[in-house]
TrEMBL record, chain A:
Organism this protein belongs to: Apiospora kogelbergensis
Biological-process GO terms, alphabetical: rRNA processing
InterPro entries: ARM-type_fold, Ipi1_N
Region (Disordered) residue spans: 1-28
Organism domain of life: Eukaryota
Listed Basic residues bias regions: 1-10
UniProt keywords, alphabetically: Nucleus, Ribosome biogenesis, rRNA processing
Name of the protein described by the UniProt record: Pre-rRNA-processing protein
Localization annotation: Nucleus
Keyword field contains ATP-binding: no
Primary location: nucleus
Entry's family note: Belongs to the IPI1/TEX10 family.
Complex and partners: Component of the RIX1 complex.
A GO-annotated cellular component: rixosome complex
TrEMBL record, chain B:
Main location class: nucleus
Residue ranges occupied by any SDA1 C-terminal domain in the UniProt entry: 684-728
Family classification: Belongs to the SDA1 family.
Source organism of this protein record: Apiospora kogelbergensis
Domain SDA1 N-terminal, chain residue ranges per copy: 76-442
Locations listed in the record: Nucleus, Nucleolus
Name of the protein in its database record: Protein SDA1
Amino acid sequence: MGSSNRKKAEKKKDFQKPKLKVGKGKVKPDSFTDTSFKSKAIVINKQLTEDAPDAIDRFKHYFSLAGSRSDTQRRDALANLTSQLSTTPPFNPVGTHTLLNKVLPLMTDISKSVRSQLLKLLQALPADEVAPHVEKVILYIRGAMTHITQDIKDDGLNYMEWLLDVAGDSVVSGAGCWVKPLKDFTSVLGWTVRSTVPTPGKGGWTSAPRTTFGAKKHGQAFPRQMLVLSKFLAHGFKAESPRPWVSEDWLGGFCRVPTNPDPYGYLGLFKPPRDEDGEIYRNREDRQDVFHRRFGDAIIIGVDAAKKEGGQAGRAAATLDKVLSEGMGDYEINPRTDDDNDGLWTGYIM
Amino acid sequence: MGRTALEKTEADLVTLQYKIRRDPQAYEKEFLELWNQYESTRDQFLAAPVTSESNVLISYRELVDLIAHVADSSLLTKVPTVYPEYTAGFADGLKDTLTKHHAVLESDLREKIVTSLVLLRRKDVVDSGYLLTTLIPILVSTPSKSLRHLLFTKILSDLRSSNTKHINHKLNRTVQNALFTLVTSDRTSSKGLWAVKLTREMWRRQLWTDAKPVAIMKEACLSDNEKVMVGGVRFFLGSDQEREEMQDESSDEETPDIKQVKHQIGINKKSKKKKKALDKAVDKVKRAQKKKNAPNPLNFSALHLLHDPQGFSEALFSKHLHGKSRLALESKLQVLQLITRLVGLHQLTLLSLYSWFTKHLTPRQQSVTTFLACLAQATHELVPPDVLEVLIQKIANEFVSEASAAEVASAGLNAIREICARQPLAMTDTLLQDLVQYIKSKDKGVSMAARGLRSLYREQAAEMLQKKDRGKKATMDLKSGEQRQKKFGEQAVGGIEGIELLAKWKEQERKRKRAEKGLPEGDDENDEEEEEEDDGWEVASNESSDSGEWIRVSDSEDEEEPIAKKQKRDSEDPEDEEDAAQELEALSKLATTQILTPADLAKLRELQLEANVDKALGRKKRKHDPQTRHFDEGLTAEQIEAPARLRKDTKEERVAKAMEGKGERSEHKSTQAIRKSKKEAEGKSTTNQEKARKKNFMMTLGKAKSKQKRSLVDTKNALKNHISRSKSGGRRRNGVSK
């Protein structure tokens, strides 16, 4: 029929091949746009200056690039910053506080190279300058440790390890830096939930998670998590050597300018009210106390289960067990806690 | 960075949410990690709510969303899990964040927190009271328009949903109390506007119908803030109408056409889905019918539920009208409308109001017709006539004169008529006679207005009119002493409406029965006893349709003709007249001498209805007949201006009226073509005839050829089959499946 012929021709038109001819050059496609232009002269607004931007400007440039959208740029910026920090004396025109503010959010970066470069940068930071910012740093480390992606979780442990190396004692005595990380540890290790108790019927005593959600890599991270936890606990349970009182202390107690920033921060005057999790646990007894109350049983059960697994996990569990027995060995449920006040007044007529 | 970094994570969160929903117990560990992640993100966020990194905000938002979704996971499986234990403080955390930082929060995050709270409410993790006490304070304090809108819709939908199954009195009381304090605590602030909006919406949907919302609105009316005040006033003026409209809207909700659904099932493939659809449709229709037959819920109007209207109107008057008030004229008028409405409806005494009117009653006053309407509204039987007399005199002087424009004069006359209809004593006879002279005006509006005034006084106090204006009936009534002007404060003796109809009917029935029995008309006594025996309850079973006697109802016609006719007939036999008087006496005794049975009452209702129908049939009902309007309804400026609009419509208007509802005829097409396209647009198919005509010729060829080649036997069989088939109702057996 007539119409169908026409339609056929129409359809054919779409698939016709252009004829190629020798020596004629390729036919340009329909959508080709001619972008060539001619000009008599090229004008450059600003001549290149002889002297490149100074060191501070360059630092700031890379500093801003640390928040770039591209992975490689972020990594390179971090690498550059690291190299500048590792000179002697370290070159840091913006200060540790600003630098940390900028780079800490990168702890949960999706790119592995960025994260490992970040670790190097952090390690290049001077230890005494990190200590005042522990409470802020631990926020981000906790975020990384509990991240849903296993890789980031592992790197979170690296950051935790770094922080413990750098400022171990101020970590465990900071506000919200004892109970909250412990909670994270136990949840990451899976020691809070009843599922560690083997369900009858399924049998077995392995503590590897049963769900498939990220379980593949979890097994490898397990011993490492325990090792970092043991390190953390070791810092927390470290026996303090009391400094002998000298007569200068009496005067210094009220005359001398405090040496550390935010000396009265523990009072929490201008901060949101803290709950038990966010509280400061200043000395060993306090830490032992809250540890025993909230985590002791769960961790002991977890350690026992992990020991049975043997291998790396078992070894790590043994380390952890040793730390626990050393740290908590001298712990006795002391009657100092406020809970016992209830009994104190019984029998009195108020 | 944030975007790319989160793409993968987001997908993971979605799968995790899905898995947790499927098997909450198995994913407890993941949930705990997530929970800790949430806590650390929240800490990061709270450390710097304003300057947080964008990816912190994004991950916080996503975590909030996820946790809100899985917070009730243990409820699904009935297995105890850790979810409720951990998420116990979740709602509190969200509430805390929202209340403290709502002004600086990023908008997406803010919205997510609000919706998550609502989600928790839907999952019954928190109760409505908690949600509303969180959201309402933010609603009134936030500077963000989008957030206000979101909160308003959420609050409203929550209130609605918690009132659907049964009215949640406790919640309503809390919310109403909160709104009440919102309005009363700071009268100068515009925060009360939200209380007004919420209350109005709830009233419109008939979820709040008691006195408390009215009390809230009452307080809003007394607010110092003009917006709040106008909102409250508007509520009283328009809410009931709004509510009715809403009800109408909901009642004529789309009910599916069962016929069409059935038809489609007959044609299309039969499937369970289709059957379900049919069942649903049938169910819906049944429900709609049930709803239609259900008794109307008692709805008191807001004006009637008002507590202490006297005090309220006095407060309104002294606050917004009297003395110095800086209100715009429009809002002033609305307040005035409300006050006068209250005065008229509850028959309040507010004497200073009338003297206040004096200065506004000039033609130069802006929107003076509204003032006139308000004045008429504020008039009732218990207003002292001497107060009104001055005002009427002023209206007459200012508006009604030969020099003034026709519209002005007619408006003035109409206003006077409306006032006098409510308080006839306010008129002096000289003024009345003067005004009635305007019947002779050349302008139709003016003469009609004057005519209205005359007919009003023919009924009310004919002696005030000149003799020539009284009309025949009024003159007769005056002579017989039937018409008498009511004194100030005199109340009409109440009776049962339509009782005379019933008595009349009873009388007729008795006569009919006696005629059947062949008794003479005379002896009533023994007959009445008989009547007692077989009358009574069986009345209802009597056929009511054959009692189609025409019953004359006293009508308030001002036209001469029907009255004249009636009188002519009356004068034909004077005995009848006497009878009528006696009868009337007897009739009025009916209610006091007999006990009305339910059957009697039913009959009474029927008779009343019939009488109304007769009345409607007897004469064309006028649209703006002032006499048929109820005094409770209130008066608008249009009714005062009405006759000014007597002018015929312009041509365009008439054409538009004629084209109304006739459909579009943009291109030149035959009626049939239009019909066909309409059918097509409705999704209906063509007729079989049409299909046959459209069928491709080539497709018909084969059958035609084979028909020609058939043997005689085949042809015979085919014909035979055709006949037997047509006898049994066609191939489809008339729709019955084989």
